[in-house]
Structure formats: C-alpha cells, structure tokens
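[step 3/7] inverse_fold.run input=structure_tokens len=244
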C-alpha cells in the first residue's frame, strides 16, 4: 500500500471533516451576507422548476440513504435485515434516485451554462460545484454494476466500517480499502472533496435548509393591529380613492 493511498484514506478524511465544520462556522460568523443559495429564478424560470425539483428530491434521498446506509452499524439492523438484502435495497432505490437526480442536475447545468443571462450573473464556483456534483453522480451510477457483482454486501460493510471510524474519530485502517473496486474509491474521494469545498461555495445554504426544520416547532407569532378598539372589519386600511 502506497503512502499516497494511506494519506488519501487515512488522513484526508479528517482534513475534509475539519474544514467542513470549522470553515462553515467561520463563514457564518464572518460573512453571513454570502450565506445564501443565490437563486436565479427571478432571471428566468424556464426549466428551473423541473430541474430543481428533480435534483433536490433525488439528492436528498441519496444523502440520507448514504447517511443511514454507511453510518448505521451492522449490529443495529442485522437482527431484521441481512447485508445482501440491504445491498439490493440500496441498488434499486439509489439507482432510481440517482437517475432522477441526474436528469435534474443536467437540466440545471444546461440552464446555467447555455443561458447567456444566467451565465453572466453566475460565479465560476457556481458552475464548478454543479459540474463536480454531476461527475460525482455519474460515478455513483457507475458503481451500481459493481454493487450488483458484490451483492453479498461485503464491500458495503467495509466502506461502512471505514466511514463510521472517520465520523467517530477512531483510527482508520486504510489498508482495508485496498481491494475495493476503483469506482467506489473514486466516489469516496470525490465525496470527501465536496465536503472540503462546502464552506467556500453556495452549498452552505444546505445548513439553513436543515435548520429551517425548527420553523415547524416555533411558537405562534402574535400579530396585533395598530388600530385598537374598533369594530370588526373596521381596522383595514382605506381603499385607494375612498373618502376618508
């Protein structure tokens, strides 16, 4: 096993995790006005509705699917689901969500690159992030035949153990990934790189999307009229042209 392989899968994950968390915190503290999605809907909607809805529906399913699939210990679900069953479930559901996301993301990239008005207002990082996500999605789809060939779930368990060790800050055995097929390794490295780039791009708005769930549990907002002690229906502003 080369030193580069040891660094990429033994050290690089912790670098990406640190930059992802600390970088997001610093950006929120120092540059909140840039903490936004920079939507281009006002410029031209067009294919945005289909592209955005397909992309977000697919990417959210894939994100939580990877989150639960990789970070759930085998001992937790092994009592009611065997590894091969989980592997096939991931192949079918992840494949469907991946195709949905691929169509949506392709529409968004085409819109941003070939629409002159939107291209003129786009930052280079906006296009770069979309392209990186597109490549990551394509590689993820490429892994499906390899996942089918390893339907016993062995590769999935190796990757899950590696990811759980990284997240819990335990020692990582990079050598355990030596025999993993290259599309999985490329997918993992590019995924870590996306987390590394996260604080420096518009992707930071994802934090706000998750934080918005708190809106469902906020207390009711009390709104009081400025016009008090008036009969019902008389506290409305006068209509234009109506006598005072």
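[step 3/7] decode complete -> sequence:
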């Amino acid at each position: 096993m080369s030193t580069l392989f040891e660094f990429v899968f033994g050290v690089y994950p912790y670098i990406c995790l640190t930059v992802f968390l600390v970088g997001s915190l610093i950006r929120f503290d120092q540059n909140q006005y840039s903490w936004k999605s920079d939507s281009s809907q006002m410029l031209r909607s067009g294919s945005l509705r289909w592209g955005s809805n397909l992309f977000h529906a697919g990417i959210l399913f894939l994100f939580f699917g990877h989150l639960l699939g990789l970070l759930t210990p085998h001992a937790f679900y092994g009592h009611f689901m065997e590894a091969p069953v989980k592997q096939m479930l991931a192949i079918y559901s992840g494949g469907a969500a991946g195709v949905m996301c691929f169509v949506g993301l392709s529409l968004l990239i085409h819109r941003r690159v070939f629409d002159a008005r939107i291209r003129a207002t786009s930052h280079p990082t906006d296009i770069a992030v979309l392209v990186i996500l597109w490549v990551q999605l394509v590689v993820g789809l490429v892994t499906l035949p390899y996942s089918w060939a390893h339907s016993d779930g062995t590769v999935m368990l190796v990757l899950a153990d590696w990811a759980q060790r990284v997240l819990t800050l335990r020692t990582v055995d990079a050598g355990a990934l030596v025999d993993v097929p290259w599309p999985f390794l490329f997918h993992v490295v590019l995924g870590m790189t996306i987390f590394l780039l996260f604080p420096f791009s518009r992707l930071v708005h994802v934090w706000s999307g998750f934080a918005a769930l708190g809106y469902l549990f906020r207390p009711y907002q009390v709104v009081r009229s400025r016009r008090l002690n008036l009969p019902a229906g008389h506290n409305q502003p006068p209509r234009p042209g109506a006598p005072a």
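[step 4/7] annotate
Residues 143 and 149 are 10 Å apart (CA to CA).
The radius of gyration is 24 Å.
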